[in-house]
Amino acid sequence: MNMNRVMTAIAVLVLLAGARPVQAQDSPHGPLSVACDQCHDTGSWKVLASGMKFKHAQTGFPLEGRHTQVACRQCHTTLKFSEAKPRCGTCHTDVHRNELGAACERCHSTDSWLVPDMPQRHVSTRFALLGAHRLAQCRACHTNEQKHTYTGAPIECVSCHRANYDATTAPPHRVSGINTNCETCHAVSSPTWGRGFDHNTSGFPLKGAHAAVACSQCHQNNVYKGLTHDCYGCHATQYNGTTAPPHRPSGFGTDCVQCHSSASVSWGGKFDHATTGFPLVGPHAAIACMQCHKNNVFKGLPSNCYACHANDYTGTTKPPHQSAGFGTDCAQCHSASTTTWTAKFDHATTSFPLVGSHAAVPCADCHKNNVYKGLPSTCFSCHASDYNATKNPPHLASGLGTDCASCHSASAAAWGGKFDHSTTLFPLTGAHVTVQCMTCHKNNVFKGLSATCYSCHASDYSATTTPPHQSAGFGTDCVQCHSASSTTWGGKFDHATTGFPLNGSHAAVPCLTCHKNNVFKGLPSDCYTCHSTDYTKTVNPPHQASGFGTDCVTCHGTGAVNWAGSFNHSQTSFPLTGRHVGVSCTQCHVNSVYKGLATTCVSCHQQDYNGSTNPAHATSGFPTTCETCHSTSGWAPSTFNHEPSFPISSTAVHRPGRWSACADCHTSASDFRVFSCLTCHEHAQSTMDSKHRGNSKYSYVSTACYNCHPRGRE
User: Fold this and answer.
1) Cis preceding-peptide flag for 394 (omega within 30 of 0)
2) Whole-number Å distance between alpha carbons of 119 and 123
3) Which candidate, 368, 367, 327, 324, places its Cα nearest to that of 349?
């Protein structure tokens, strides 16, 4: 037996000696710089280490919000982790069909798809929500919401309010041809349609005598569109009949307001020559009208200076106007209000106003050889040599722009410059104001520097321990807690930007009471997570035993400073009205039973039903739907609709007066199903037998009467 074991062992050793050595396996993850023991232990490749060292933030895609709860294989569908793309659209179907772009983070966070501040975000769209629109449901305008069509929704009023427009009769909008630009008369910020038409927004504001004219006097037959606005359209007769001066022969324009005021109550006119192309100033003001307007010619006369003063222009030699290419707009240098040709050119009318040291430079220094036209107006065109020679800082080498006015003032008497950093993406505020330029712009690098806080303060971020920013997974957008306008790092976090704003007693709780062990990310925000013990221990009423929901804010507000709650019974299928409002909770919820109770009246009032004797409900076979006759305000008064069974209203044959009490017909107080017709209709049986002879359905009993006369008629 021992010899067999020895031979078997020798055979195994021989086989092992001839076997190939075990080869190390290639990583199924492809090229990966992370060590295996960051995720695995020596137990198994398939089971991740319980204390996994790997931090997903090292990949450039930190796991935040709902991503912290997702299984690895849900995103990494293959073992080659580099194949997983960090774009939202890789894992999440774009329900907006790319109408709103691929940047999901503009509206959504990793905590939830819901967007709580949509009215505020709507301001950035083409249609801010104002007035009644702020209260409207999204579906009221985005009618194709099931297809997620948002970008194509029209913003014109009439696109939604066409029916209102068509139905309006005072005045009739459609018939009158009133335009569909609703905001002409109605305010989009108003909660109602009423406002009123401002005639000033039309082409014809009402002034003077027009203000007292009734609307219908002009807008006859409800015609509001297509009426002429010009005076002549209504006052052609007055125009043609005027003789002093004769308007028509003199070719006067038909724009009456040139001489007459629409604000006046009469035709008295005064022509303002300033409304023409030639206002009368200086010597022109003293010239008689007929001196220029000979033979009553008021139309077609030229108004430019050159038309009359061409000889003066051509003959001028100092400077030579014609050869220097001066314009023929004499008013550029000469004033029509002066009595001489003395000129002073306003350089501000050109693209280069003279300010600072330029104001003292003689004209000829720039306008050499009488060249006044075509000279460039940019600083660099004259000061290129100054730009190239500047060393502090070196403009050319640093790539500074050639728009000298960015730093230098044309109104200054020297080159001293001051750069306005607010024209860049990084205005200087707080502690940055006192920092020397070279502290940031090292080696004279002024272009291409990052404007993010983290780009300069990464070491501050990594070294911070109270709280530890990096290990706690804080974002690198420093301004969320720190102010750029501050002179210190002192930060204040606005908890309202998270999914859990601090209200009520939460506002006074120290941060570390909730954020134990410096855990600031991934904490749940529902009440029950922290207050499950309070929920379980509550006995008045016993929450757990009564099956209360764990959404604490249903009864307790987040803004309260204690646990005192108030339940809104209207949220259930049995709102409290009438007498039920004053009933204590335990009167209905016996033995702390709050769930599964019936809401029918008879479920609580069966004894009241059985004990009623006037009338006797149970023996009379009354239905148990108490609300048919009673209301929650009280058992009395009660009303019963007798009409379906037997009409007894004021218009019926058996109207009040022919009966005085229920007992007149219902002869058994304990059973209202028993009735008698013969109590009131005292017919002799022999007479009735004779009258109904041959009628097989006849019998001398009340039920037979009712069967043939169910409405009380013969």
Assistant:
1) no
2) 7
3) 327
Task: Give the separation between CA 352 and CA 331, rounded to whole angstroms.
Answer: 18
pLDDT of residue 287: 79
Question: Tokens 């009623």 correspond to what residue?
Answer: 612
* Alpha-carbon gap, residue 416 to 357, rounded angstroms: 13
Long-range CB pairs of 692-697 (<8 Å, 24+ gap) are none
Q: Are residues 578 and 523 in the same domain?
A: no
* CA pair distance 295, 591, nearest whole angstrom: 113
Q: If residue 110 lies in a helix (H) or strand (E), which one and from where to where?
A: none
HEC-encoded secondary structure of 454-474 = HHHHHHHHHHCECCECCCCCC
Give the list of residues 6+ apart from residue 325 with CB closer than 8 angstroms, or none: 372, 373
Cα gap 468→487, rounded to integer Å: 21
Residue 211 within any structural domain of the chain = no
The verdict on 555 and 572 lying in the same domain is no
Sequence-ordered list of residues with C-beta below 8 angstroms from that of 453, at least 6 positions apart, any chain: 476, 477, 478, 479, 482, 484
State the burial class of residue 256 (Cβ atoms within 10 Å of its Cβ: 0-12, 13-18, 19+): buried
- Domain boundary pick from 517, 543, 565: 565
Residue 273 in domain: no
CB 296 within 8 A of CB 246: yes
What is the distance between the terminal CA atoms of the chain, rounded to a whole angstrom?
A: 122
Over its C-alpha atoms, the chain yields an Rg (Å, rounded) of 48
Helix (H, G, I), strand (E, B) or coil at 366: helix
Q: Domain for residue 581, yes or no?
A: yes
* Contact of 333 with 344, CB cutoff 8 Å: yes
314 near 292, Cβ under 8 Å? no
Q: Could you write out the DSSP letters of every residue in 9-23?
A: HHHHHHHHHHSPPPP
- Write out pLDDT tens, residues 664-711: 899 888 888 889 888 888 788 888 988 899 888 889 998 889 898 998
Query: In whole angstroms, what is the distance from residue 622 CA to residue 643 CA?
Result: 16
Cα torsion angle, 543, 544, 549, 553, sign: positive
Dig out the tokens for 587 from the structure. Answer: 């009167």
Give yes or no: residues 692 and 675 share one domain: yes
Name the one residue in this structure whose structure tokens are 């908890």: 495
Question: What CA–CA distance (Å, rounded) separates 415 from 674?
Answer: 117
Per-residue pLDDT of 315-360, as tens digits, reads: 887 788 888 888 888 888 888 888 788 778 888 888 889 888 888 8
How many Å apart are CA 611 and CA 632, to the nearest integer?
Answer: 19
Length of the chain: 714
Given 515, 539, 565, the domain boundary residue is 565
Look at residue 385 and tell me if it is in a domain. Answer: no
CB 99 within 8 A of CB 48: no
DSSP assignment of 672-695 equals TT---STTTS---HHHHHHHTTT-
What is the C-alpha to C-alpha distance for residues 429 and 487, in angstroms, rounded to an integer? 9
Residues 584-638: tens digit of each pLDDT? 888 888 888 888 889 999 989 999 999 998 888 888 888 899 988 999 999 888 8
H/E element holding 291? helix 289-292
Largest CA distance in the chain: 152
Contact 250, 296 (CB under 8 A): yes
Q: Rounded distance, CA 432 to CA 435, Å?
A: 5
Examine residue 31 and say whether the peptide bond preceding it is cis (omega within 30 degrees of 0).
no
Report the alpha-carbon distance of residue 303 to residue 276 in Å, rounded.
Answer: 8
Count of structural domains, the chain: 3
Ramachandran assignment for 76, one of left (phi > 0), alpha (psi -120 to 50 degrees), beta (any other): beta
Residue 446, Cα to own-chain centre: how many angstroms? 40
Using a cut of 0.90, tell me whether the model's pTM lies above it: no
Range of the domain at 680: 646-714
Reported as a single tens digit per residue, the pLDDT across 108-128 is 889 888 877 878 888 888 888
